[in-house]
Write a structure and sequence with these properties.
With 94 residues, the protein is mainly α. Helices cover 61% and strands 0% of the residues.
Length: 94
């Protein structure tokens, strides 16, 4: 398990993409072709990065869609691993 909490991709978008460019949520949403509500949900960690949003972000910020999806996966996996002990799973072996 990873030792630190990975940031939600929305935090990364806010800090590394929007703030350096001085973009508002409204302006960024327009540029991405999504509603302000949709982008706001991602930025506030209420929604994850979908494959389509990953492609939109990759076009807008000249990054790879895979990097955005990987961040989302790492974030979700870290949180799931924290609850591993609560899962009722029987180990199976051949």
């Amino acid at each position: 398990m990873m030792m630190h909490t990975p940031p939600h991709p929305g935090e990364v978008i806010k800090e590394l993409c929007l703030e350096p460019l001085g973009l508002t949520v409204t302006a960024a949403a327009q540029a991405l072709g999504v509603s302000r509500k949709t982008l706001s949900a991602v930025l506030n960690g209420k929604a994850g990065i979908s494959p389509e949003m990953a492609v939109r972000l990759s076009i807008a910020f000249d990054t790879s869609a895979e990097s955005w999806l990987n961040q989302q996966t790492q974030y979700e996996l870290w949180h799931a691993e924290r609850h591993r002990h609560e899962l009722k799973v029987t180990k199976l072996s051949a």
